Amino acid sequence: MNPPSGSNQPTEKLQFYGRRKGKPLKAGRLGLLDNLLPRLKLSTDQPIDPDVLFPGKSVRLEIGFGSGEHLAYMAQANPGVGFIGSEVFLNGVGSLLRYVAEMDLANVRIYDNDVRYLLPMLRSNSLERVSLLFPDPWPKSRHAKRRFVGPAMLNEMARLLKDGGEFRVASDHPVYVEWTLLHAPQHKDFRWEAKTPEDWRVRPADSTPTRYEEKALKAGRRPAFLTFTRIARTG
């Protein structure tokens, strides 16, 4: 089968920068990886239609869900929404699986590889929201190309989001905030919704803190919460 129309499926292995595994996992987490993950795991062997994956539900994607506490909270609070979580860090995947099991979440699916392989396989105009929360800022100039936000990924976000859908970015690093504001508001398909400083200094009311946010606040760093709305398509 061919990738969804308008996508750019990678034809070769992508370069990944970051950790895939941390401390040895305990038996309980290993058991979840062996028994629960196969039931929730997405495959990119063929195109994915979120409407088929979650019949009758709107669908959101969280890129790099960390330990999974935000995604799990949102899934529990919004049973009428389907959630796709992408994370390469095995320990984080194990953590989310624990939340899914303990909270009995039926509206979560997981992609445990580089999200750049997943995005092209998702049907266009199919997501209500995409969240990128506290990504690696790659603050050095020579590493700028590693940052997720950029022209290519913004094009992909615009392809995937429904009209009026949201691309949410949170970061406590000034370099990444500046970088995001340099690119996203200039994209023809997005509109930055902030009207006052408090619109981007305060976490959205329908969200919950991540561990990274709490860590930043304890260290005296004030995060920025940037929301970009997908402008309605014409024609």
Helix and strand topology:
Layout: H1 27-35, H2 37-40, H3 50-53, E1 58-63, H4 69-77, E2 81-86, H5 90-103, E3 108-111, H6 115-118, E4 127-133, H7 151-160, E5 161-171, H8 174-183, E6 190-192, H9 198-201, H10 211-218, E7 224-230
Helix pairs in contact: 1-5, 4-5
Q: How many helices?
A: 10
Return the CATH class: Alpha Beta
Number of extended strands: 7
Radius of gyration (CA) equals 17 Å
* Biggest sheet layout: 7 strands, mixed
| Straight-line N-to-C gap | 28 Å
Main structural class: alpha/beta
CATH architecture: 3-Layer(aba) Sandwich
- Spell out the helices and strands N to C: HHHEHEHEHEHEHEHHE
Q: Say which CATH homologous superfamily is assigned.
A: Vaccinia Virus protein VP39
Number of structurally distinct domains: 1
CATH topology: Rossmann fold
Summarize the amount of helix as a percent range: 25-40%
- Percent range for β-strand residues: 15-25%
Query: Which stretches of 5+ consecutive residues score pLDDT under 50?
Result: 1-8
Mean pLDDT: 90
Shape: globular
Q: Give the strand order of the largest sheet, numbering strands 1, 2, ... along the chain.
A: 3-2-1-4-5-7-6
Short description:
With 235 residues, the protein is of the alpha/beta class. It contains 10 helices and 7 strands.
Outline the structure in words.
There is one protein chain. The protein has one domain: Vaccinia Virus protein VP39 (Rossmann fold, 3-Layer(aba) Sandwich), CATH 3.40.50. It has ten helices and seven strands. The chain starts with 26 loop residues before the first helix and ends in a 5-residue tail after the last strand. It is an alpha/beta fold and 235 residues long. It has helices at 27-35, 37-40, 50-53, 69-77, 90-103, 115-118, 151-160, 174-183, 198-201, 211-218, and strands spanning 58-63, 81-86, 108-111, 127-133, 161-171, 190-192, 224-230. Helix content is 32%, strand content 19%. It has a seven-stranded mixed beta sheet, sandwiched between helices.
